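agent> Task received from the user: take the single chain below, predict its 3D structure, and emit C-alpha cells. No templates, no multimer pairing.
agent> Plan: (1) validate residues, (2) run structure prediction, (3) serialize to C-alpha cells, (4) report one or two observations.
agent> Step 1 OK, no nonstandard residues flagged.
tool_call: predict_structure(input=
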Amino acid sequence: MGDFEVRLLGPDDAHVLDDLDPGVFDGPLRPDSTAAALANPEHLLAVALVGSRVVAMASAVVITEPDKRPVLYVDEVGTAEPARRRGLATALMAALLEEARRRGCTGAWLMTEDDNATARAFYRAIGGTEAQRPVYITFDLSADG
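)
tool_result: status=success, residues=145
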C-alpha cells in the first residue's frame, strides 16, 4: 500500500474526492451532499490518500447541546478492500479525535452492529469502550416513505 496521507477536508476540497477507490463510501457520491457536508463546519470528513487516490475515509459530526459540552459523533469509517489492515482507519480515527479535542469536545461516540466483530475489535483496540446496547430507531423521511 505504501505511504499514505491523512487529510481533513474543507469547503474547497471536493476535488480531492474525484479519485476515489471503490468501496470507500457505500455508494456513488452526490455532488449536492458532498458540497453540503464539506461546507458544514460541524461536519468532519477525514480521508486517507495514497498519492491522489482516496482509499479510506471517516466522517463525524460535532454535536453541541444547550446543556452539555460538545461531543463527537462518528458516523462512518470506510476503507477500500485492498487498503484494509494497514493502519488507515486508526490514523483517520486519531485525526477525528484530535480535531474533536481541539474543538473542546469532551467525548466521542459511535454505533456499530452487534454482529460486526471486526469493527468492535477495532474500536476496542484504539481505546473505545462498549458502554451499552442502545435501541436503534429510524424514521423514513422520504417522500415515498
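agent> Step 4: summary for the user.
The first helix runs from residue 31 to 39.
agent> Done.
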